[in-house]
């Protein structure tokens, strides 16, 4: 019998990084070494601890990383709590890759890119950012606006400071919600910060974060003159199969697991408001 | 057409079941019909349809997907799939036969569901034309002819004989396997029976229900209809409609710790259930209105939008008969319809 | 009766006594009645129905409806009033927000029983001197009225309304019903026969949850069977006994609170006689703790929630278990 996508592969967790008080980044390789499968930025995978649960997570590492995949996961429910408690060396099950991807090889090529993220929302964008960094010649200027509740809640802070900020042609703007000792950067919510920074409306925008942040940021972008056709986001709903068959992650006739998770706002606007 | 006298049905069933597993609808004590594995002496039900649909044969209520052995930090994945044995489902009605085409569109779409395909490949569907459709029938709404069912092979009764014809290779193989029992028959009387059935179909109370005003192009219009509140107000949020429906195919995946390992099951699920879309951090369908709307939007709008206009309903009428509060797709269509 | 009820509802809406009315709405066929809330006289005139098929107990809807603004008129049959009382006792409904008009009870008809006679293509059903005249696509059929009544009505326990603000029609009596006959029959079986009976019935279960969701005693905000953290959430049964457990646990949970309204069996798509499980508990409670009818009043203490010195000892389980 042929392989079935519902039968998962084994992945080994080879590194666990505490990113923020409630976010850890897990490095996963196949038992034989190397990646379990290839993916494109924005795609997801179903991770599971049998008996505990199975859930969809975006792959936060870039496909240009040839050695491993990474997942930045916020402690939130049953499965994620278990994942946060496990040790390096733990095997997990993994299946995928699922969903579409950010159009890095088509619509985004040659464009100036503006990434806007809030909190754990950086996870799916990090895959694109590093993909762009590794294929620098294919893209224009890159601006990253990233905010979190506090300095401690900024995911991948070390990578942002040590790598992204040192790259030429990448502008990084960080912000936190409230003033904090040891923070001399910007303070304030992401939507307002975007307006303050007044980015060029020629940029293509990739946005991910809490729904409320997305809502206000999108409104702000429109005020600045951005069109919905320039703005991409990535969605999350409850999933079981990952391949558009179990029937629960639909928004209108589109399945987030299969037709998404990446949507352009004009596409999303045609769908019922149920997410 | 080839035929066998109705009083020789026992012989026919014995012959089929000698080479493969045969399922036929039989009457239960409470008057309901259900599919049973044929054993000698069983009588074919005369009921119009089985209480549960025939989808169980290809998409069972529960099935084991995969097993896991957990040892320390290690996990072993055990593929529990086995090649299905050949089987025949006899007496499937036209509505249920169409439901398989609809299920195929989901489960055989890439990536193919191997569990479903395995059973589909090994199952032969032998249909039976209806002669006594009932008030809850509306298969005609979806272009189904109850007097000419689809399936691998189809049977028609003229009251004396059962006529059989093949629709494809699988059906022909089935007929070949029982050809010694069949003889050529004159279909004049059968044609009269079929014509009469079609007359009755035209007189049924739901005969004029059409899908003309439904389909993928009505997405936001119907989603935002103000009728949903009233339609869903007394919905109990149970899964009766979903579980008796031949086309409902949503499923859940669950793990069980048996004490010796983990079994991962797939089971039927219902969009009517409160936890269907519930996530650790919220639920996009908070009240029964949204869940109720999802079920009917899926059948009348989303499914046709994704499947070249095919609707996710075959008009079998089971939900009309079984919903505890008698709310159903017909009432929804009539209330919602914008001409 | 329907006419009198519509007039009563219109009057109470017009004089401001109530803002809404809960009753039943006509369907596509003679028998497919849907519980519904009406807000205007026009709606009532157009769609309100009360006939031989309006069996649904609307009490449970009042859990939600009585918490809305304004007052709602509920037409309750005698059996429905027991459910309502029990819900009041459990603080699930806001009594002040409900205006109850007691209406005569059944017997009500079960369309499934008509269909089980092989009568198909039903276009209309008329009761003429307790003979049903059934108009069908295939001509007229007849059957005795009493052969088509719901199981719950065949063993009706009471024609008396235990709570109401006003009555339409005369008040009835508590009946000396034969409702425990089948329970006794099951008790007299051998353990194996009984086991086979229940396995046969419960194996039909498709876990649609209709029995639970319709049950006026099942009003938990979050059912243990829907809670992934409970360890018993089981949409997918791990073995063939799990469905049995679901029903047995449910029967335990409603023991002493079940008023025997019979809705569980009425809505079961598989015709499982679920009410017999509940009746066994009712019969046992009657014999072990003294006669008790859940929902009869709103103040008495339920035997299973009350300690009395002369309560039976737990060893009774062992004693009664001996064949």
TrEMBL record, chain A:
Which terms in the Gene Ontology molecular function aspect does this entry carry? 2 iron, 2 sulfur cluster binding; flavin adenine dinucleotide binding; metal ion binding; oxidoreductase activity
- PANTHER family to which the protein is assigned, alphabetical: ANAEROBIC SULFITE REDUCTASE SUBUNIT B, DIHYDROOROTATE DEHYDROGENASE B (NAD(+)), ELECTRON TRANSFER SUBUNIT
Under which name does UniProt file this protein? NAD(P)H-flavin reductase
Q: Which residues cross the membrane?
A: none
Query: Its Gene Ontology biological processes?
Result: pyrimidine nucleotide biosynthetic process
InterPro entries, A to Z = Cbr1-like_FAD-bd_dom, Cyt_c3_hydrogenase_gsu, Dihydroorotate_DH_Fe-S-bd, FAD-bd_FR_type, Flavoprot_Pyr_Nucl_cyt_Rdtase, FNR_nucleotide-bd, OxRdtase_FAD/NAD-bd, PyrK_electron_transfer
Keyword entries, A-Z = 2Fe-2S, Iron, Iron-sulfur, Metal-binding
Q: Which cofactor does it need?
A: [2Fe-2S] cluster
Residue numbers binding [2Fe-2S] cluster: 241, 246, 249, 257
Q: Name one Pfam family in it.
A: NAD_binding_1
Which species is this UniProt entry from? Ruminococcus flavefaciens
Q: Which SUPFAM superfamilies match?
A: Ferredoxin reductase-like, C-terminal NADP-linked domain, Riboflavin synthase domain-like
Q: Where is the FAD-binding FR-type domain?
A: 6-104
Cofactor binding, note field: Binds 1 [2Fe-2S] cluster per subunit.
Q: At the top level of its lineage, which domain of life is listed? A: Bacteria
Automatic annotation (TrEMBL), chain B:
Q: Which SUPFAM superfamilies match?
A: alpha-helical ferredoxin (SSF46548)
Chaperone: is it a keyword of this entry?
no
Kindly state which keywords UniProt assigns to this record, in alphabetical order: Iron, Iron-sulfur, Metal-binding
UniProt cross-references to InterPro entries, sorted A to Z: 4Fe4S_Fe-S-bd (IPR017896), 4Fe4S_Fe_S_CS (IPR017900)
Q: Where is the 4Fe-4S ferredoxin-type domain?
A: 226-256, 302-335
Enumerate the GO terms in the molecular function aspect: iron-sulfur cluster binding; metal ion binding
PANTHER family the record matches = ANAEROBIC SULFITE REDUCTASE SUBUNIT A (PTHR40447:SF1)
User: Which protein are we looking at?
Assistant: 4Fe-4S dicluster domain-containing protein
- Protein source organism: Ruminococcus flavefaciens
From TrEMBL, chain C:
What InterPro entries does its record include?
4Fe4S_Fe-S-bd, 4Fe4S_Fe_S_CS, Helical_ferredxn
Q: Which domain of life is it from?
A: Bacteria
UniProt keywords, alphabetically: Iron, Iron-sulfur, Metal-binding
Q: Which SUPFAM superfamilies match?
A: alpha-helical ferredoxin
Output the Gene Ontology terms for molecular function. iron-sulfur cluster binding; metal ion binding
Q: Domain named 4Fe-4S ferredoxin-type: which ranges?
A: 249-279
Give one Pfam hit by family name: Fer4_8
What is the protein's given name? 4Fe-4S dicluster domain-containing protein
């Amino acid at each position: 019998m042929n392989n079935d996508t519902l039968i998962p592969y084994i992945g080994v967790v080879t590194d666990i990084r505490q990113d923020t008080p409630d976010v850890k980044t897990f490095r996963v390789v196949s038992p034989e070494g190397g990646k379990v499968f290839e993916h494109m930025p924005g795609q997801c995978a179903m991770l599971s601890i049998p008996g505990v649960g199975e859930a969809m997570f975006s792959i936060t590492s870039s496909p240009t990383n040839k050695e491993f995949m990474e997942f930045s996961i916020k402690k939130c429910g049953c499965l994620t709590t278990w994942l946060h408690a496990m040790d390096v060396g733990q095997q997990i099950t993994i299946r995928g890759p699922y969903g579409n991807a950010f159009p890095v090889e088509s619509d985004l090529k040659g464009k100036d890119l503006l990434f806007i993220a809030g909190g754990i929302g950086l996870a799916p964008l990090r895959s694109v950012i590093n993909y762009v960094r590794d294929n620098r010649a294919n893209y224009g200027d890159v601006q990253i606006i990233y905010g979190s509740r506090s300095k401690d809640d900024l995911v991948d802070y070390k990578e942002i400071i040590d790598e992204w900020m040192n790259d030429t042609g990448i502008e990084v703007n960080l912000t936190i919600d409230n003033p904090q000792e040891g923070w001399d950067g910007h303070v304030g919510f992401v939507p307002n910060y975007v307006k303050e920074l007044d980015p060029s409306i020629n940029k293509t925008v990739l946005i991910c974060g809490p729904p409320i942040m997305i809502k206000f940021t999108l409104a702000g972008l429109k005020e600045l003159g951005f069109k919905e056709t320039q703005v991409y986001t990535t969605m999350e709903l409850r999933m079981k199969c990952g391949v558009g068959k179990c029937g629960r992650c639909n928004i209108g006739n589109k399945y987030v697991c299969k037709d998404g998770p990446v949507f352009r706002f004009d596409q999303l606007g045609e769908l019922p408001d149920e997410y | 057409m080839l035929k066998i006298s109705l009083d020789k049905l026992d012989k026919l069933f014995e012959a089929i079941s000698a080479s493969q597993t045969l399922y036929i609808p039989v009457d239960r004590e409470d008057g309901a019909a259900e599919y049973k594995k044929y054993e000698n002496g069983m009588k074919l039900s005369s009921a119009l349809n089985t209480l549960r649909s025939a989808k169980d044969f290809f998409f069972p209520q529960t099935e084991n997907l995969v097993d896991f052995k957990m040892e320390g930090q290690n996990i072993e994945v055990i593929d529990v799939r086995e090649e299905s044995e050949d089987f025949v489902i006899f007496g499937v009605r036209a509505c249920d036969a169409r439901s398989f085409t609809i299920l195929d569109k989901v489960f055989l779409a890439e990536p193919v569901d191997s569990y479903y395909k395995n059973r589909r490949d090994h199952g032969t569907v032998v249909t039976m034309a209806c002669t006594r459709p009932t008030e809850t029938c509306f298969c005609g709404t979806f272009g189904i002819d109850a007097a000419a069912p689809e399936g691998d092979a189809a049977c028609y009764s003229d009251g004396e004989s059962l006529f059989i014809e093949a629709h494809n290779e699988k059906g022909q193989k089935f007929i070949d396997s029982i050809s010694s029992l069949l003889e050529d028959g004159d279909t004049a009387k059968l044609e009269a029976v079929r014509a009469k059935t079609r007359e009755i179909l035209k007189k049924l109370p739901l005969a004029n229900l059409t899908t003309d005003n439904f389909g993928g192009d009505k997405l936001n219009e119907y989603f935002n209809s103000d009728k949903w509140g009233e339609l869903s107000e007394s919905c109990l949020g149970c899964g009766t409609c979903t579980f008796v429906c031949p086309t409902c195919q949503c499923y859940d995946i669950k793990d069980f710790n048996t004490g010796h390992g983990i079994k991962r099951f797939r089971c039927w699920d219902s969009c009517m259930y409160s936890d269907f879309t519930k996530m650790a951090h919220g639920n996009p369908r908070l009240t029964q209105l949204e869940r109720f709307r999802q079920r009917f939007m899926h059948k009348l709008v989303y499914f046709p939008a994704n499947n070249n206009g095919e609707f996710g309903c075959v008009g079998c009428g089971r939900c009309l008969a079984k919903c505890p509060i008698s709310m159903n797709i017909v009432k929804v269509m009539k209330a919602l319809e914008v001409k | 009766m329907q006419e009198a009820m519509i007039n009563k509802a219109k009057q109470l809406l017009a004089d401001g006594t109530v803002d809404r009315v809960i009753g039943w709405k006509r369907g596509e066929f003679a028998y497919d009645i849907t519980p519904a809330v009406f807000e205007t006289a026009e709606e009532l005139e157009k769609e309100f129905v009360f006939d031989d098929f309006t069996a649904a107990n609307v009490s449970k809807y009042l859990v939600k409806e009585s918490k809305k603004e304004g007052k709602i008129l509920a037409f309750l049959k005698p059996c429905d009033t027991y459910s309502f009382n029990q819900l009041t006792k459990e603080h699930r409904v806001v009594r002040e927000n409900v205006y109850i008009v007691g209406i005569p009870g059944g017997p009500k008809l079960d369309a499934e029983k008509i269909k089980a006679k092989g009568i198909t293509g039903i276009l209309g059903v008329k009761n003429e001197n307790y003979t049903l005249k059934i108009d069908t696509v295939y001509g007229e059929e007849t059957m005795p009225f009493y052969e088509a009544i719901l199981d719950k009505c065949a063993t009706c326990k009471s024609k008396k309304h235990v709570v109401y603000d006003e009555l339409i029609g005369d008040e009835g009596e508590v009946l000396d019903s034969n409702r425990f006959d089948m329970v006794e029959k099951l008790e007299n079986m051998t353990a194996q026969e009984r086991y086979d009976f229940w396995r046969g019935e419960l194996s039909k279960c498709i876990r649609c949850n209709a029995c639970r969701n319709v049950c006026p005693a099942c009003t938990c905000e979050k059912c243990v069977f829907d809670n992934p953290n409970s360890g018993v959430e089981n949409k997918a049964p791990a073995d063939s006994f799990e469905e049995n457990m679901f029903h047995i646990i449910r029967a335990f949970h409603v023991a002493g609170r079940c008023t025997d309204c019979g809705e569980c069996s009425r809505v079961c798509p598989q015709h499982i006689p679920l009410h017999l499980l509940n009746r066994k508990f009712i019969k046992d409670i009657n014999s072990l703790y003294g006669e008790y009818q859940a929902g009869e009043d709103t103040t008495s203490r339920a035997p299973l929630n009350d300690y009395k010195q002369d309560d039976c000892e737990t060893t009774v389980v062992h004693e009664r278990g001996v064949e």
